[in-house]
Amino acid sequence: MKSMIALIKREYLEHRGAFLYAPIGLLAIFTLAIASALAFNKVRLPYEVGIPSALKFYELAFAFAGGLWFVYLMVALFFYYADAFSADRRNNAMFFWKSMPVTDFKVLSSKMLAGMTVFPALIFIALLATGMVLYFHTMLALVVMPRLVVPGILDVIWSSLRIGFFGLVYLALALLWYAPFYAWVGALSTVFRRWSIPLALLVPGLIGLLENLFFSDTGPGAGHFLGFLRQRADFSLDRRDIQAAFMSDQPVDIGILLNSLVGGIDWVQLAGGLIFAALAVYAASEYRRRVIST
Q1: What is the DSSP string of 215-244?
Q2: Model pLDDT for residues 97-117, shown as the tens digit of each residue
Q3: Phi, psi of 233 (to 5 degrees)
Q4: CA–CA gap between residue 96 and residue 249 (Å, rounded)
Q5: How far is C-alpha 90 from the chain's CA centre?
Q6: How many other C-beta atoms can be found within 10 angstroms of the C-beta atom of residue 201?
Q7: What pLDDT is stored for residue 47 in this prediction?
């Protein structure tokens, strides 16, 4: 257990730029952008919201910020896995890590776990910090939106907890859902290094092309394989549920969102994806152990 913690700590130290320093910089830019939008009266709420309240303004901004951080995390993790599985084989400077008596499978597992736990936790903390920034901007919005009603601090805290809890659940399930994609690009990087970035998309595309060339009359338009990948890559909420939860004068009802989220997940596919991810990491570790001298 201590060796696993040490390995995960190494991942944090080597990649904190993308998951710690960069989010701090983005948060500073985001703070400046929101302040500028309020200062120049560029903020417009959707008409479905009706007569706005400061609390609703805060909820919409907090949810929107959560979506932006989610996209950033997904993209950053893709590039992380496209490099991390082969990163330590080209740098022998950190002899302490090289001398640890651990298996290749444990090394790659630590990289997989770091991307599924530590780095998302840092981004989630950035989201909470964004919420604090947005609260102060909500107070500033009263200047340019005189119809807004000042929310109580307890209402803001309770709203943040509810939306934050939903965001945490959504993030955890999304990471589990996309784990096989990240394991796939990570396994490719063990063999092809950074060429795994285009190959992660090119290989499935070629398989789908071959299926359509040879079996075009026996399957759906895009083919069974590409159709499955398109369906497997979809992890989103029903648009109507999002509108019902956010586009009203009432506080966000996360019960609607949670029911939509949990009810829309194919749990068999999620479990199968995790099995595939574990097998991909194991195969990559065996290749690394047998072929690569680290």
Answers
A1: STTSS-TT-HHHHHHHHHT-----HHHHHH
A2: 555 567 888 888 999 999 999
A3: -80, -10
A4: 57
A5: 28
A6: 11
A7: 45
User: What is the DSSP code string of the chain?
Assistant: -HHHHHHHHHHHHHHHIIIIIHHHHHHHHHHHHHHHHHHTT-----GGG-S--HHHHHHHHHHHHHHHHHHHHHHHHHHHHHHHHHHGGG----HHHHTS---HHHHHHHHHHHHHTHHHHHHHHHHHHHHHHHHHHHHHHHHH-TT--PPPHHHHHHHHHHHHHHHHHHHHHHHHHHHHHHHHHHHHHHHHGGGHHHHHHHHHHHHHHHHHHHSTTSS-TT-HHHHHHHHHT-----HHHHHHHHSSSSPP-HHHHHHHHHHT--HHHHHHHHHHHHHHHHHHHHHHHHH---
Residues in the chain: 294
> Comparing C-alpha atoms, which of 48, 182, 212, 160 is closest to residue 116?
182
- Contact criterion met (CB below 8 Å) for 192 and 199: yes
Q: Is this prediction's pTM over 0.90?
A: no
Q: Are 181 and 79 in contact (CB under 8 A)?
A: no
Q: Give the C-alpha separation, 177 to 270, whole Å.
A: 6
pLDDT at 96 over 60: no
Q: Specify whether the CB–CB gap between 127 and 67 falls below 8 A.
A: no
- pLDDT per position as a tens digit, 56-77: 778 888 888 899 999 999 999 9
For tokens 């092309």, name the residue.
209
How far, in Å, CA of 246 to CA of 244, rounded?
Answer: 6
Annotated domain spans of the chain: 2-291
Residue 171 to residues 39, 75, 236, 238, 253, Cα–Cα distance (Å) = 33, 14, 11, 16, 18
Query: For residues 205 and 209, what is the distance between their CA atoms, to the nearest angstrom?
Result: 6
